[in-house]
Amino acid sequence: MLKALYGTQEILDNLPHRYPFLLVDRVVSLEPWREIAAYKNVTFNEPFFQGHFPGQPVMPGVLILESMAQAAFLLLALSQKHFPERIPQDLKIEEFKGRIGYFASADRVKFRRMVEPGDRLDLNISFLRLGTKAFKVAGEAKVFDQKAAEAEMTATF
After folding, report:
1. Catalytic sites, residue numbers
2. Is the pTM of this model over 0.85?
3. Which superfamily does CATH assign the domain made up of 8-156 to?
């Protein structure tokens, strides 16, 4: 079993999201300024399951994308907070300190498997491009080592 590298409190300290829109439960690995692995435990009491869909609950695809986006922001925030000495040389980090990032686009989005109550949604994110005004990541979400979704996402500050 993987040991949590960062738990709930560290996630709350580094993301502005709160329940019911906090969609990352643990960070299990972090390679600063490069990639992150995290997960979301999907439970039956999630509020979206009441209407999506009664009798056959399925996690909405847009929330799977949101969980990947939150993991991407954690990659940036945790790298900045705990590994400032490893920052890429061409990046002026002071330009985005204290700023909130916003989801700007999602490309090459594919949904491959339904995510249901009881699943653990494993999130793997890696930087494709990192700048002071925007960044782009490749994201993948899996359940039981089966790909549930993939996307390239861009965020701006």
Report:
1. 52
2. yes
3. Hotdog Thioesterase (3.10.129.10)
Residue 96 phi, psi dihedral angles, 5° rounding: -120, 10
Burial of 1 (0-12, 13-18, 19+ CB in 10 A): exposed
Q: What is the pLDDT of residues 9-23, one digit of tens each?
A: 999 999 999 999 999
d(CA 137, CA 134): 10
Q: pLDDT tens across 105-143, in order?
A: 999 999 999 999 999 999 999 999 998 888 999 999 999
Spans of all domains in the chain: 8-156
Gap between the Cα atoms of 99 and 111, Å rounded: 31
Place of tokens 């580094």: 14
Contacts 24+ apart (CB under 8 A), 90-97: 91/130, 91/131, 91/132, 92/132, 93/132, 95/132, 95/133, 95/157, 96/132, 96/133, 96/157
